[in-house]
Every structure is written in C-alpha cells, then in structure tokens.
Amino acid sequence: MAKFSLRQNLNKKDQQKLLLSLCNAMVSLKNPNEAAELLADLLGSQELLMLAKRLYIAKLLLDKYTYEEITKELNTSSATVARINIWLKQYGAGYKRVISRIKGKKTAIPDKPAPLKGIDDYFSWAATRRRYHSVDIMIDDIIKITKKNQRKKIIDALTALDKSKQKKNIRL
User: Fold this and answer.
1) Are the C-beta atoms of residues 71 and 85 closer than 8 Å to each other?
2) Which of 22, 58, 109, 150 has its CA 20 to 30 A from that of 166?
3) Under a CB-based contact definition with an 8 Å cutoff, are residues 53 and 74 in contact?
4) How is 54-112 classified by DSSP, letter by letter?
C-alpha cells in the first residue's frame, strides 16, 4: 500500500501539472493491455485491486444491486460500498462516464470480473525474473526498501548463504 506523507513537497501548481501529466499518459493508451501494463507499473497489487473493486462497486450500485449483494460478491465492507455510493450521489461524474462508455462494449466490466492476463503475469515469479536479469539486482532492491533491522537480517542471511555456497562450491 502506498505511504501517505502529511508533508507536501510540491506546491498546488506543480501537483496539478503532475496530475495532468498522469491523465495525458492514461489518455495516450491504445488498448486494455497497455492500460494493464501501465497500472501494474504504477500501482502495487493491493492498490490495483482496490481501484478495480471501487469501479466494480460503482457499476453494481448503478445497476441497482443492494449493499448486501455487493459485499457478498466482492468480499468488501458495507462501509466501502456506502462511501462509493455517497461519492456517486454527490459527485461521481467520472465513475458514471466510464461505466456508461464501456457498457455493451467487448471490454465492458463483466458481470463476474476476470483477472487481466497482463496484470497477473506482471506479478508472477517469471515476470519478476525477467525484470531483474540478475538475482543480485533484485536482492539489492529488496535491501534498499527494507527497514534497518530487516536489512541487517537479510544481509546476514545472504552472507551465511554465500559462505555455505563457497564451502559446497555451489553456484546459485
């Protein structure tokens, strides 16, 4: 999940420029696979699922599903459904526009959501190995994002693994 900082490093004008740049990037996409690739690059799997659920909840609410039906189908809380319902009633132009545009199209939100191939593949072990050509690069990235005490444990484990590998003359 993304971390939120109360400290804003950018002024409003720069924030708006960044958001406009993101919107332009999204508009430039030509098909669902390109969108899946961009979303997988920008968001973590939990964030991606959260956004997909929100859109699907909005669709179900507009299709007159009850809170109970939605919470049961998507395994979400009624509070989440309520927040989206309130947003739909007070604002919600973006939800409504997207849902109305994709209804009836081949790429419409299905009655039963199926995962996009590109997103599932992106988070697979095989895709991770392709992104990180070397295990060393991946391990370096993991070490960089961990907390100090976790970092020490990882480095100690890698050192022990390296020593045992040298003893056994095994190549990873």
Assistant:
1) no
2) 150
3) yes
4) HHHHHHHHHTT--HHHHHHHHT--HHHHHHHHHHHHHS-HHHHHHHHHHTTSTTSPPSS
**Phi, psi of 4, rounded to the nearest 5 degrees:** -115, 130
- Tell the residue number behind the tokens 């509070």, with chain if given: 79
Q: Whole-model pTM?
A: 0.58
Three-state DSSP class for 51?
Answer: helix
Tell me the C-alpha to C-alpha distance, in Å, between residue 98 and each of 67, 93, 124, 158: 21, 9, 29, 48
Q: Is the pLDDT of residue 113 over 60?
A: no
Q: What are the CA-CA distances from residue 69 to residues 10, 59, 65, 82, 92 (Å)?
A: 42, 13, 6, 13, 21
Do 55 and 109 contact (CB within 8 A), yes or no? yes
Q: Three-class SS of residue 9? A: coil
Count CB-CB contacts under 10 A for residue 28: 9
> What are the distances in angstroms from CA 126 to CA 122, 123, 131?
8, 8, 9
